[in-house]
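Problem statement: downstream parser choked on a complex file, so we are re-checking the raw output for the NAP run. The parser issue turned out to be on our end (a line-ending mismatch), but while we're here, posting the original submission so the record is complete.
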Amino acid sequence: MRRVRFHAYGGPEVLRVEEAEPPVAGPGELLVRTEAIGVTLPCVRRTHGDGNGGGDPLPAVPGGEIAGTVVAVGPEVTGFAVGDRVTSLTFKGSYAELALAPAFLADRIPDDASAVEAVALVRSGQVALAALSTAAPRDGESVLITGAASATGHLAVQLAKLQGVPRVVAAVSSAAKAEFLYGLGADEVVTYDQDSWGEPADIVLDGVGGELLPRALAAVTEGGRLIFFNSGGGTVPAYELLAGSKTVTGLTMRRFTTVHRERYEQHRAQLWELAGAGRLRVAIHAELPLEEAAKAHEIIEARANLGKVVLRP
Ligand SMILES: NC(=O)c1ccc[n+]([C@@H]2O[C@H](COP(=O)([O-])OP(=O)(O)OC[C@H]3O[C@@H](n4cnc5c(N)ncnc54)[C@H](OP(=O)(O)O)[C@@H]3O)[C@@H](O)[C@H]2O)c1
């Protein structure tokens, strides 16, 4: 099978297409013939050797989400069979024609949905819903979302509106993304370099972090909360928490999927229902062949994507 690996940390140029033996499904795992592979900011960061507390041991295969068809079922797996069409977070390198997925995170793809739609909807939608449900907006509360045009952000904007949030502020690096975001229902669009991001918000969903974190925290109203779900790191100015009675809550899907199992299940049902009814729109920015993984990373590094970037093996 073909797969993409990197042997040294660096930019898109370190990604190489190689031939490899297919992996073997271990206990609790599915072996999936991939039809769509999600490209994400964490994948890009990990290729550089940063993000989530350090670099992967080299050589490494990037990737963390797939959709495709089950070709083998590992021991102790129940509820799935060869031939099932599934999508899943993988938490393991998945830029490959065959990839392993933990069965407990796998989700059947409805007959009328494509693999591309599935991979774009389920993982990013899960992150968006996990962030929103962690923040738990109360009636009338406003939400500001950084990285709002990303795969996760563009779904979070729509899901916040669908949950009845009266004021959703989309924050992005470029004004060129404004039309896209207004089209998804954002009430306001601000760019990071603006002196003011408008009225502070009750809730900030921070999908960027790093140098933007102090600014994102400053955009939280007194007594408000920030959900930190990005892989950008950063330092929380603690005095601001005290002075503004603000709360910062960290969120990882790795923990959310295990500790909040029921909510995870509810969220995936909700995502398919909303998408099926045409109420939630998945924007696909680019579909590229696996061989062009480097080009896919270039798009993310240029911060140019409006929605999801997907690889097709
Ligand atoms: N907590 C979790 O378990 C979890 C799981 C999945 C994803 N996430 C986080 O969710 C966020 C969005 O991820 P995604 O995969 O949905 O994003 P994506 O579709 O890959 O989009 C990337 C976007 O992020 C923004 N960005 C911010 N800093 C960037 C940087 N240094 N380099 C490139 N782009 C940067 C850019 O938009 P702007 O230029 O407009 O900011 C860019 O267009 C990420 O921070 C990711 O770590 C968290």
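For whoever reads this later: The first helix runs from residue 41 to 47.
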